[in-house]
Every structure is written in structure tokens, then in C-alpha cells.
Amino acid sequence: METMTVERVIDASIDEVFAWLTTTTHFTSSPLVLRCRLTRHGEAAPYGVGAVRSHFWLIGWFRERITHYDPPHATEYAVERSLPPSRHELGRMTFTEVEGGTHVRWTTRAEIPVPVLGAVLTRFLARPVITRTFRNILDAANSALTPHPQSETGPGRCRA
After folding, report:
1. Structure pTM?
2. 126-142 average pLDDT score
3. N or C of the chain: less Cβ packing under 10 Å?
4. What is the pLDDT of residues 73-113, one digit of tens each?
5. Diameter of the chain by CA atoms?
């Protein structure tokens, strides 16, 4: 099993960051994620415990179930099915308020279940794609949630 972790501070409130990153349709902000949808609502919230998400990435299809939901501090998921097949022990996002915004830590633990070559394929193929995709999604969250100051000239103004 390979553990993959990506971290980022996003310049927005913990509530905003949690809401954005737990809404699976936002994942398509990454060029490596082609389609995402919520296929079953969770028990207490749309993306709460029991929710089922379907993701289609360039590297395959994943069906995930939310197993833990503690807004705005943490969410966990398990990949129930995937094509190509994968073994998955953990998917977790944690959110912590810090100076300058919200610290996000996204961890997954998985492997490609191929005899003999599985560990090598996981480390040199799956790991770079997964961590790059996580980074792209966190970058998209930062862009979407970070306030963008208006230019000094503003609309309808001219600079002399």
C-alpha cells in the first residue's frame, strides 16, 4: 500500500473550504478529472455519511462511499469499486483553521493490485497522477475561494 498526502493552505474560511472540497462536482476543475457526480445522498447531508460519489478520471473510474463526515473538520471515504481495479484503505481530508486561511490535508492509501508489479506501478504511475490531481483540485479551490481584489482602476475608470 502506498500512502499519498497533499497539503495546502487556502485563503478562505474553514466552512467555505470544507463545503467546496466536499462537493464532488468541483473536482472537474482538475484537467485530469473528466466527470464527477453524487449518485446517492448521504444520511444527514448530501455529501454526508453514506453518500456515494462517482468519479471518472483520465486513469479510470471510481465509486466512493463517504464513511465519516464531521463538518467543517474532516471527511473520509472508501473506494468501493474502480476500473481498473484498485485496493483502497483510506481517503481522508482534514481541515484546520490557521493564520491565513484553512490548512487542508488530503491523504489516500491505495495500491494497484497486480502481482509482482503492483507496488512499482502504484509508486511510479498511480502516485504521481493521484497527487497531481489532488494538487490541481486544491489549487482550483484556492482560486475559487480566494478573494480577488478589484484593480485600482476598476470598471469605468481610466488611469491617467
Report:
1. 0.86
2. 92
3. C
4. 999 999 999 998 888 989 999 999 999 999 999 999 999 88
5. 69
